[in-house]
């Protein structure tokens, strides 16, 4: 679920992988410098009214997309029954372990990184809630923006619960190192550049939900090809949630473009200029100082999340928001419109050049603590 490594290939986990050439969106600067960053894109105070005026629209158009709890799936439905009622628990665990046996180590690196990214939910929720004009001031506000945020977090919470339990039962990964990574990550936080500005945040969330939809869809496909149809169903089910979340955020940005095209276009331009960095970008296991980048190499190499995917998401959003035909822009808005609409073409040229360079490089082995320091090729 990361977009930092631009891939040379989108093919599945086969022997034809080529080493990806990264175009890094995460600087190698020490983490402390992230914490010294100043807020660079505050929302102008007069824009608060835009979100206030959209509250009844959000109640009618966004809140119906929350699925009632009794219609939602729960992790327990996909896991071996531990209650003792069926007496099948041990057999079901053995079957689960047999199913995962043919999945390669690199698949587990990708799945662990995806799961860890879901684990940063507390940071994600609190960072969204810090945004101006939409924040939940009391913790249980009936405001539609706040209601959506809490329900979204409650839905997301199931993703990591299910994936983490499944990984634990598989016996294929080092849970201790994974747990340390999660604790480090939640302690480190995230800094993806929306700076309390809800325009930027909703643009980011649109991209990121689509990226998770793509990524979980690809881990589903690879699980199926690798002989685990249940894991495929799990990843596919999570991907379907992400798709519904994507619809919500895309719809909010669409509405903002309608009522405030110039400010929204500026926000899209600002987020795309920063490049969209995934929420888990500060993950650290206490061993590998470039863990997120290395995880990105793997997801890129096995086709879970690639540079091509990044470009396709850009194409999708540009089309969905009809940015090429957007009207009502002033000079700076038009400049950002031109910049964003030209991004996929420019990005694909960069990808091509990266592919050519990568073809000339020898494969390199990387060790991951999550799989007991075994090495995978990138
Ligand atoms: Fe998720
Ligand atoms: Fe999501």
From TrEMBL:
GO terms for biological process: fatty acid biosynthetic process. One of its GO terms (cellular component) is chloroplast stroma. Gene3D superfamilies: Ribonucleotide Reductase, subunit A. It is found in: Plastid, Chloroplast. GO terms for molecular function: metal ion binding; stearoyl-[ACP] desaturase activity. This is Stearoyl-[acyl-carrier-protein] 9-desaturase 6, chloroplastic. It comes from the Eukaryota. Keywords: Chloroplast, Fatty acid biosynthesis, Fatty acid metabolism, Iron, Lipid biosynthesis, Lipid metabolism, Metal-binding, Oxidoreductase, Plastid, Transit peptide. Its main location: plastid. Fe cation 2 binds at residues 156, 209, 242, 245. It comes from Sesamum alatum. Fe cation 1 binds at residues 118, 156, 159, 242.
